[in-house]
Design a protein that fits this description.
The protein has 111 residues and is an alpha/beta fold. 15% of the residues lie in helices and 33% in strands. The chain has a four-stranded mixed sheet, with no helix packed on it. A three-stranded mixed sheet has the order 3-7-6, with no helix packed on it.
Length: 111
């Protein structure tokens, strides 16, 4: 194969492999009526998974301040997930337990 063509293929492969950013999943545990951690900082495109580790208690993740309706509950050993496509700060609480509060801070990639 032509040396120049091989170099061009290598450079193009590098550009395309580095331009693709992989989204990640972040776990927030729910235990003893707390979100652990209560504040999470992620990049645009990442997903948060809230896992209910309680033995008997149900919860939900309600972004009440954004005007959303209260979501369904999830029970022990169940989870809820949400992908964040916009940057900003998003406060949430547990509908049945309003003292349980958390926040997701979504930053632009590279910040």
């Amino acid at each position: 194969m032509n040396k120049m063509l091989l170099t061009l293929i290598t450079v193009c492969s590098f550009i395309f492999s580095t331009s693709h950013v992989h989204a990640k999943e972040v776990i927030v545990e729910i235990y003893k009526k707390q979100f652990i951690p209560s504040e999470v900082i992620i990049d645009v495109g990442d997903t948060i998974i809230w896992k209910n580790l309680e033995k008997r208690q149900y919860h939900n993740v309600w972004f009440k301040g954004s005007g959303e309706e209260e979501p369904d509950y999830f029970f022990p050993d169940e989870s809820y997930q949400r992908k964040f496509e916009q940057f900003g700060s998003f406060a949430y609480e547990c509908g049945p337990h309003p003292k349980m509060k958390g926040a997701v801070i979504v930053k632009k990639a590279g910040q």
